[in-house]
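Pasting as-is:
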Amino acid sequence: MANKRDYYEVLGVSRSATDDEIKKAYRKVAMKYHPDRNPGNDEAEDSFKEASEAYEVLSDSDKKTRYDQFGHQAFAAGGGGFGGGFGGGFHDPSDIFEQVFGGGFNINDLFGGGGGRRRSNGPARGSDLRYDLDVDFEEAALGSHRTITLPVSEACGRCSGSGAEPGTSKQTCPTCGGRGQVTAGGGFIQFSQTCPSCSGAGEVLDKACRDCNGVGSVKVRQKLKLRIPAGVESGSRQRLPGKGEAGVRGGPAGDLFIVFHVRDHDFFKRNGLDIYCEVPVPFHIAMLGGEIEVPTLHGGAKLKIPAGTESGKIFRLRGQGVMDAAHGGGKGNQNAMVNIEVPSRLSGKEKKAMQQLCDQLHDSHFDLTIKMKKTAEKFYDRKRKLESDT
């Protein structure tokens, strides 16, 4: 870990770089050090791997957050990261390069000719999918389970993903001789392009599978059971490895990313792990003191109201907030702001009794009223002085 360079330094970007800036920087470095552009240059190949590793981390919001917190240690074995080195938690550098530049790219077109490695007819990883899921406030705060149905492609069962009708086989493409590329032009001006007969696969089918038409995958409606962890927020992502689109030519399936969108709640508001709410307190309890029950995510909680409590005062209910399932299960707090409630729809008899009580009160019982009057007196004194001076 001590010998690893900072990923931001590797790509030449700042820590505040956007996703587009990170991708653009990777393209520049990867093109410069690609092994096909630097044959036999071990240092260039190491730089290419280093750039690919840096891009894989910085282009993934979850990995980037871990790296910003823990550095390279986040990916060390046993370090709570993603595994160490390529072949562990990281992908093949060439696969990352192909994903960024697009599958089936022509290496000769990119680097201006030459006999580069041809990978277009090899296995290719399936595309990642995104599914946006609306969840209720309670589900996000407490955790839940959902079943979703989504259309995905999966390997054809009849041909096992080969695209060939069972009992038949694939043959080397006669147009390109299995290269997947054909050369056009003549003289000094020649260029390579994807073979039109095999679409770059290098092979053609004797007979296409009748279920998938030779594609190797079929569209299905897939049911998935999700566990929504407690504490998710709007924008939180959940990765389901291998639940994306089927791979091509026997390649692995892509991943499915669930993006959560949390609905607002009528009573509870959230800020991180803390919950905020406004609780009505009858005026006589606020005046004389007493106890009320406050709704929380985890059930009703008793709250003692001291005598003389004013509107706007905030009481903290410790441990009554959102559970942080992703980081050990700790809970936030609930902050209850008092809103003093006065009675309405009083009967004549009740109004008379209330009036008798109020007749016993005067300004000295109200601290805020006293404070306001003193402030006003000072203001008027200064106003009169200013007027007399003029």
